[in-house]
Design a protein that fits this description.
This protein is an alpha+beta fold. It has one domain: START domain (Alpha-D-Glucose-1,6-Bisphosphate, Chain A, domain 4, 2-Layer Sandwich), CATH 3.30.530. Helix content is 25%, strand content 35%. Strand 2 and strand 3 form a beta hairpin. Helix 1 crosses helix 3. The longest helix is centred in the C-terminal third of the chain and has 26 residues. The protein is globular and about 45 Å long. The chain starts with 8 loop residues before the first strand and ends with a helix.
């Protein structure tokens, strides 16, 4: 099989929340901000789970009591860096032999703001197709939903 390099998806946002809140909302409250429309299960999602620490699972639970793996935590550096394996192929099915990387950097800024930089790398492993363009748009939407919740949580502190 011939692999053609695909540039990583890169997204950056500024979150009006401190570093710790921003990291915790991303890692501990994924179920509250991840869109219910974005999953690989056969029935609607009931819960999104991101287990803490290296080796922790990233998965979703569904109305039919099934679990759908998405990937694992590869790097866990509170509150600055998180790397997730994305084991979902170009047909949006779990593939345990596949692993692209979603790297997030959390950078503190002045005035209780945090810059979040996301890179989804090794996309050539997903094969060619229009799904990459959709993923680019999807990550932008997903980060914006995350940002809204992180900023709301920061106001509660």
């Amino acid at each position: 099989m011939k692999y053609i390099f695909v540039a990583p998806i890169k997204k950056e946002i500024i979150v009006a929340a401190d570093l710790e809140t921003t990291f915790k909302v991303f890692t501990e409250k994924m179920d509250a901000w991840w869109p219910r429309t974005h999953h690989i299960g056969k029935t609607p999602v009931t819960t999104f789970v991101l287990e803490s620490g290296v080796g922790g699972r990233w998965y979703s639970l569904h109305e039919d009591d099934s679990e759908c793996d998405i990937g694992k935590i590869m790097v866990w550096e509170p509150f600055t860096r998180l790397v997730l394996s994305w084991q979902v192929n170009g047909k949006f099915q779990y593939d345990p032999k596949l692993s692209t990387e979603v790297e997030l950097l959390f950078i503190p800024l002045e005035h209780k703001k945090t810059q979040v930089c996301l890179q989804h790398k090794n996309l050539e492993l997903l094969g060619e197709g229009e799904h990459i363009k959709g993923m680019d748009t999807g990550w932008e939407m997903i980060l914006n939903l995350f940002k809204i919740l992180a900023e709301q949580d920061d106001q509660k502190v």
